[in-house]
Amino acid sequence: xxxxxxxxxxxxxxxxxxxxxxxxxxxxxxxxxxxxxxxxxxxxxxxxxxxxxxxxxxxxxxxxxxxxxxxxxxxxxxxxxxxxxxxxxxxxxxxxxxxxxxxxxxxxxxxxxxxxxxxxxxxxxxxxxxxxxxxxxxxxxxxxxxxxxxxxxxxxxxxxxxxxxxxxxxxxxxxxxxxxxxxxxxxxxxxxxxxxxxxxxxxxxxxxxxxxxxxxxxxxxxxxxxxxxxxxxxxxxxxxxxxxxxxxxxxxxxxxxxxxxxxxxxxxxxxxxxxxxxxxxxxxxxxxxxxxxxxx
Length: 296
Hints:
The protein contains nine helices and seven strands. Strands 1, 2, 3, 4, 5, 6 and 7 form a seven-stranded antiparallel beta sheet that branches. Helices cover 61% and strands 16% of the residues. A hairpin with a 2-residue loop joins strand 5 (138-139) and strand 6 (142-150).
């Protein structure tokens, strides 16, 4: 399983490098500004607008309690880390050696992963700018969305975090990681859920996330176009090679025909000369015989 995932990740990184490299070329820039890409952006923004407005209304709602936010970090197409944000703090599961002693406590004999609580605030200005420009709450690889509200105090959320860690068990990269920890914590502290909770909790895309995938992302689109162009160029080269081969064959055939004609002409000339010589010899012999007969 681990080997398959590593191969898939390596293939994904290779494609990302190809896409990024192609996007920087003149051809890539032309495609980015093509009518098809403009229509894609317009269609995508129009389809996402109702869901964006709904989420903005939820983000302005402070009547249901303290807001709970979900932040996931994606680096070069790879999901790296999950964090919950509430009461001005971030709650996460990390390697304990990266933090001070006031993090959660390690359990003897197990891997050095523990919960961590630290002050954190969302950069509202950058996030709103990203929403206004792309209709996506994505800032520098951090996708931040509201998943619900809690009526618990900060101290109660802290205790819930400690309790969740005590029930969490041994860390496993695939089956028991930071995502599972935060889902357990969210179940304990949420009193009301927002539109993006299903996406956070069960990785079920809401209409908002589905609309984000309305068409292939620009770089994937560029890579697809590049592959199509490469295939077209290869086909054209093959056709040219076939035409060249056909032309070469025709030229060879023409040359052979010319050579055959020349050889036939030479043979005919030789035969004519031989026939002329034979006739001359016969005539000479006849003349000599005639002269001999007259002398007798």
